[in-house]
Amino acid sequence: MRFKSPYIVFSAPSGGGKTTVVKLLTEKYPEMVISVSATTRPKRPGEVNGVDYHFITKQEFENLIKKGRFLEYEQVHGHYYGTLKEHVDNHIKNNKVVLFDIDVNGALSIKRHYPEAILIFLKPPSEEELIKRLKQRRTETEESINRRLKRLPFEYEQAKKFDHVIVNDDLQNTIKEIEKRILISGE
Ligand code: ADP
Ligand code: 5GP
To answer: Is the pTM of this model over 0.70?
Structure first.
């Protein structure tokens, strides 16, 4: 196998670069797939149901919780987000390497289920740069940005339990640093 693990989990503060990094990796490595989470958060302009998330209602989400269909789920920034077990199992059956873009609690849950999972925390170069990127993305209101920033100290504390912390400064360099941690060397 070219990869050290079929489970590669990315967490970062909101705006830290998870979506960007995961997209670049799947474009580069055809054997990689993104785990598409379910969420009750409203769709942002440009997001596609089934591609970015499975957008479902709170009632649907709570039904899936009752049925035990989630590998893990959390409430983040006031909405439910969760990983459906069946989806991950199907990817693994198809010999895929699954990339997760999930919050720090979810990442640690995945590690409990799959101890071989590699947990990578993407750290922004600074809080100022993070705010700049969030503003540039133009998807959040001022209030939503503030809510997201409040979670930073908790996220940095949890990051200590991750396998790797990588500063996402220059994007190409970030990809290189990730590759060092997930590819079996010599390939
Ligand atoms: P997340 O998914 O963690 O919330 P995104 O991938 O949406 O973060 O990134 C937030 C914004 O920052 C996006 O506009 C993205 O284009 C930009 N961005 C991501 N990584 C970098 C980087 N290394 N350098 C500059 N801008 C970046
Ligand atoms: P956003 O609303 O910006 O897309 O995501 C908000 C946060 O929820 C991010 O930290 C993202 O990684 C996290 N998230 C997305 N999907 C899941 C999931 O399935 N489980 C968990 N625990 N967190 C998720």
So the answer is: yes
